[in-house]
TrEMBL record:
InterPro entries registered for this protein in UniProt: Acyl_CoA_acyltransferase, GNAT_LYC1-like, LAT
Lineage top rank: taxon: Eukaryota
Domain LYC1 C-terminal stretches: 215-407
Gene3D superfamilies (UniProt xref): 3.40.630.30
SUPFAM superfamilies according to UniProt: Acyl-CoA N-acyltransferases (Nat) (SSF55729)
Name of one Pfam family that matches: GNAT_LYC1-like
Organism: Kluyveromyces lactis (strain ATCC 8585 / CBS 2359 / DSM 70799 / NBRC 1267 / NRRL Y-1140 / WM37) (Yeast)
Protein known as: KLLA0D15653p
Length: 407
């Protein structure tokens, strides 16, 4: 890992820091206990927050490097998948324990993405590192540690990318969801804002959209459990691939995170962990599907009292039918809100594109308060391309940039 190095920071002080990958569970728990001061929220203690992060780290997504399928597919490169933890140490601090010099930490959730490089007709699987948990200990803030840590993280992944001619690494991407606005633009990330919508007027939505249009779908609705809908995720993958080919005009760097059941299960693990604070029974319905394969996947966001729509897949391409199918799926989402005592629906605009669902958006404008529509997303997505793809950074099109690939 990176050696200790020196750099003058913006306050004119010399930073003597060391960036390290960590896999010691005690050190990782230390970082999560620190992070808990910002992210545990009002319902979890810092210990519970650290427990949740541990469970998510042990999930199939977090342990993707151990998946037989991925080892078969990516061989030695499979080791780069899954959750990775990092710390920044200030070497001028006394070394009295294994955590005493830590001033900042972060992690990356490394998954498979798909890219199409300009001039190519191929959809190429690539390593996609999503940065999260960027945190500087409170009394060390404002000294350039986070900037330095993300620079070092970029450098580490750039070196990995440059070390190989395998397109999986050569064309890799780093992305993140910033809670600190444009902070990461100083580390070379380019932001893409996706507006958020909230629907509080559930009764009006149900009457004027779900019941008015959903009549066309009389088929029984299938409920999605914890991990029983791989067939539906396969439909998402087929649609994403088709969409990439359609968007490819040879001039853009196209990128999307590959949808996988592991990604949805990661959301479900989070959901089930936090549900204990609100209900005795575990949640069991994580979405719904129609007989033609159209489906919706949701996340019970217990702490905000909302049902977050993380994926909508519509089997048909015809506009009228798309609205009909969405109406039936949202009826199930509204029902789930009632069953679980959640009060509103939330989604990112690109998940339900206005051009595909005109009736939905015209209904929303009639029934919902304007300030709940097209809101600023405080999770600002941003991406950074590998050294060999930097020349395409202004030509990058991030498809399906919605909550399902959030970390
Ligand atoms: C954001 C954070 C990691 C920055 O760490 P740091 O080591 O103090 O960062 P640096 O010294 O490199 O940079 C400080 C800059 O961050 C900016 N910053 C801090 N919090 C910010 C916020 N909420 N929004 C925008 N900018 C912010 C500061 O204004 C400062 O800007 P300046 O350089 O123009 O004066 C730290 O404040 C933190 O841990 N916050 C709580 C956790 C968090 O929100 N993490 C980000 C998750 S995406």
């Amino acid at each position: 890992m990176a050696k200790g190095n020196h750099k003058i920071n913006k306050t004119g002080m010399t930073l003597s820091v060391k960036f390290e990958a960590v896999d010691d569970p005690e050190v990782i728990r230390f970082t999560h206990l620190q992070n808990g001061s910002t992210w545990s929220g009002e319902y979890l203690s810092r210990e519970e927050y650290a427990d949740r992060e541990h469970i998510l780290g042990q999930s199939e997504l977090g342990q993707l490097h151990k998946s037989g399928d991925h080892i078969d597919r990516f061989e030695d490169n499979a080791k780069h998948l899954g959750i990775k933890h990092f710390v920044l140490k200030d070497l001028t601090l006394p070394e009295t324990s294994k955590t005493s010099q830590i001033v900042a930490s972060c992690e990356t959730m490394n998954r498979v993405g798909w890219v199409m490089v300009p001039g190519s007709e191929e959809i190429t699987p690539v390593l996609t590192a999503c940065v999260g948990g960027v945190f500087t200990l409170k009394h060390h803030r404002g000294r350039g540690y986070a900037k330095k840590m993300i620079d070092q993280l970029n450098h580490m992944y750039d070196s990995l990318s440059e070390s190989s001619d395998d397109p999986f690494l050569k064309y890799m991407t780093i992305d993140l969801y910033s809670e600190v606005d444009e902070y990461y633009s100083r580390n070379g990330f380019v932001s893409y804002h996706v507006p958020v919508y909230e629907i509080h007027q559930l009764a009006a939505l149900e009457t004027r959209y779900c019941d008015a249009l959903g009549q066309a779908n009389k088929s029984p609705v299938r409920t999605l459990g914890y991990n029983d809908y791989e067939d539906l995720v396969e439909l998402q993958r087929q649609q994403f691939r088709k969409q990439m080919v359609e968007y490819n005009d040879g001039s853009k760097f196209l990128f999307t995170v590959k949808p996988t059941l592991e990604t949805y299960m990661w959301f479900e693990d989070r959901d089930i962990f936090v549900s204990k604070k609100f209900h005795e029974e575990k949640p069991i319905r994580f979405g719904a599907a129609l007989s033609d394969g159209s489906h919706i996947v949701w996340h019970h966001s217990w702490t905000s009292h909302s049902l977050y729509i993380i994926k909508v897949y519509i089997a048909t391409g015809e506009t009228q039918n798309a609205d009909n199918a969405l109406a039936s799926l949202l009826k199930e989402a509204v029902k789930e809100c009632h069953l679980t005592k959640l009060t509103y629906l939330e989604f990112w605009q690109d998940e339900i594109p206005p051009e595909t669902f005109p009736v939905f958006y015209s209904t929303l404008r009639q029934v919902e308060s304007g300030h709940n529509l097209s809101k600023v997303n405080h999770s600002l997505s941003a991406i950074r391309l590998s050294p060999s793809c930097q020349k395409y950074k202004d030509e990058c099109l991030w498809l399906n940039n919605t909550k399902y690939c959030w970390f």
